[in-house]
Amino acid sequence: MRAYAPLMAPQHSFGGLTAARYWGLPIARAWTKDEPLVVARPKGATRGMTAGTRHIAYDGERLSVVEVDGLRVLEPLSAALVLAREHPHEGMVQVVDALLTPSRWYPGLRLPREPRQPFTTPERLVDFGVACRGLAGVASLRAAAADARVGVDSRFETITRLLIAEAGLPEPVVHPAVVIDGVASSPDLGYPELLIAIEYEGDGHRDAKQWHVDIERYARFEAAGWITVRVTREHMARRGDHFVQRIRAALARRDHAR
Predict the structure, then answer these.
(1) In the chain, what are the domain boundaries?
(2) pLDDT tens digits for 10-55?
């Protein structure tokens, strides 16, 4: 981006996938050196022709550009709307979850926001969709917003939640507040009324200190009668069949106990 920025026309900015990567929004496909830079221009502006770039037009009256670190970039909501023209639904839900998260643990985000505050809210997303009515991508962004939830800590939490719902199981609560013996916890997902917790075990759980914290938490949950279903990235294969079946079994156990 920095190498190309001095070559950009004054009315051009980075948009779409390139802007999403700049803001640290979750993109499943890893960056490769042959990925073209997405350059956005207001409708009516002259298109660039530089090799290694892909040029798109946007509505300059309803979408906006910011300058950060000397780079002109579509602001995050505008970047998400442009990305929604071609990004798959599940990927867009991951993006919107990141826009809605207040988490300081969310990996990679560099959105302009107050500490522990989300970049945007569901209500602002609705207003943005209304303001952008008729633009390409707005229907996809609205659909993603309908399936997004506040408070997610990573795209793998999003994937886990979506796969559970896809399997026809009740949608779990995101980070339910749990207090056991005076100790507050919030599993990644769960059915708190059924005492079922679902934990996505990302690489951060490999840390030695976190490993001990996890063991203590799981022991505390078990002593209080909770069932904990632990999920890893490898369990995402076959649309999550491995962990979905374990969640289904946990729900059946609770149903049988009633």
Answers:
(1) 5-147, 155-257
(2) 999 999 999 999 999 999 999 999 999 999 999 999 988 889 999 9
Q: Kindly compute the dihedral angle of the four CA atoms of residues 211, 216, 221, 223, in this order, to the nearest 10 degrees.
A: 140
209-232, pLDDT tens digit by residue? 677 788 888 999 999 999 999 999
- Where do runs of H (alpha helix) occur along 187-236? 208-223
Query: Amino acid letter at 186?
Result: S
- Assess whether pLDDT exceeds 80 at residue 207: no
Taking the C-alpha atoms of residue 169 and residue 244, their distance in angstroms, rounded to an integer, is 8
Whole-model pTM? Answer: 0.93
Phi then psi for residue 21, to 5 deg, are -65, -40
Structure tokens at 257: 């106990």
Q: What's the Rg (C-alpha) of the chain?
A: 21
Domain 155-257 has CATH 3.40.960.10: yes
Residue 170 makes CB contacts below 8 A (sequence gap 6+) with: 191, 251
β-strand 183-185 against 178-180: which pairing, if any?
Answer: antiparallel
Residue 186, token pair as written in the block: 């919030």
The CA distances from residue 241 to 146, 154, 167, 190, 230, in Å, are 24, 20, 9, 18, 13
The Cβ-side half-sphere exposure at 56, using a 13 Å CA radius, reads: 25
